[in-house]
Design goal:
Elements lengths: L2 H29 L5 H14 L11 H6 L17
């Protein structure tokens, strides 16, 4: 790894950690019901915009999840992992 890249990472890490902490606050507030309805709606709109999701766009199938880059583990009925 190039030293300049490592230095940039070390320099930006505290900023990224602070940003994550600030983003976690409204997530926690909305998930625990401690956010007013209007604030929650605005927060969800912001998240959708950041995630580049349209209001009507939802992930309905396992294929949709896989296309979004989320890991999918396919299982047989009964919970046994399949090989494919």
């Amino acid at each position: 790894m190039k030293p300049a890249l490592l230095n940039a990472y070390a320099e930006m890490l505290p900023r990224l950690q602070a940003e994550e902490a600030l983003l976690a606050r409204p997530v926690i507030a909305s998930s625990t019901g401690n956010m007013k309805r209007g604030e929650a709606s605005t927060f969800v709109k912001q998240l959708r915009r950041l995630a580049k999701m349209d209001r009507g766009q939802t992930m309905r199938t396992v294929g949709d999840l896989a296309k979004a880059g989320l890991p999918v583990i396919r299982t047989k009925r009964g919970g046994e992992k399949s090989n494919g």
